């Protein structure tokens, strides 16, 4: 299977991931109804986000928590939503890539999801 090495690989991965996300009955609504995502803007951000994480090229300059807090206020992002997000991400990585960066993409997503869920839990109590 192919290694995850280039921005083109990331584009393929991210595009395949979101094509699953928008069909998923558990989490699609966050993207389609709540955030009403502008895909022409969101996808390049996600390419840069993963490029920064996996290849250390700091092309992503955003603030992921700042994007998720307002969504959580409209509809709580619960553990089962994070689990489904991670399940779709892991599936998509494993269907398309193998090797160190593929493993890292799964591992990093798990850690970020954990941290995100934790920060949301705290924010809800404030
Ligand atoms: C329940 C799980 C999740 C849901 C429902 C969710 C949903 C969303 C939505 C709706 C947006 C906003 C898009 C827009 O406003 O155009 C977004 C942005 C983003 N998400 Fe998530 N997300 C989840 C988990 C994650 C995880 C685990 C990561 C990282 C591994 C992540 C990384 C990002 C990044 C980097 C952005 C772009 C932020 C920016 O504007 O710079 N998300 N997400």
Automatic annotation (TrEMBL):
<dbReference type="Pfam" id="PF01152">
    <property type="entry name" value="Bac_globin"/>
</dbReference>
<keyword id="KW-0408">Iron</keyword>
<dbReference type="InterPro" id="IPR001486">
    <property type="entry name" value="Hemoglobin_trunc"/>
</dbReference>
<keyword id="KW-0479">Metal-binding</keyword>
<protein>
    <submittedName>
        <fullName>Group III truncated hemoglobin</fullName>
    </submittedName>
</protein>
<dbReference type="InterPro" id="IPR009050">
    <property type="entry name" value="Globin-like_sf"/>
</dbReference>
<dbReference type="InterPro" id="IPR012292">
    <property type="entry name" value="Globin/Proto"/>
</dbReference>
<keyword id="KW-0813">Transport</keyword>
<keyword id="KW-0349">Heme</keyword>
């Amino acid at each position: 299977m192919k290694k995850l090495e280039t921005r083109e690989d990331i584009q393929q991965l991210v595009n395949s991931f979101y094509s699953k996300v928008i069909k998923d009955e558990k989490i699609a609504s966050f993207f389609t109804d709540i955030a009403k995502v502008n895909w022409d803007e969101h996808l390049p951000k996600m390419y840069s986000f993963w490029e920064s994480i996996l290849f250390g090229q700091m092309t992503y300059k955003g603030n992921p928590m700042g994007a998720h807090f307002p969504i959580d206020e409209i509809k709580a992002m619960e553990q089962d939503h994070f689990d489904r997000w991670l399940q779709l991400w892991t599936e998509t990585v494993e269907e398309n890539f193998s090797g160190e960066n593929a493993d890292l993409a799964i591992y990093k997503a798990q850690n970020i999801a954990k941290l995100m869920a934790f920060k949301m839990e705290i924010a809800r109590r404030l």
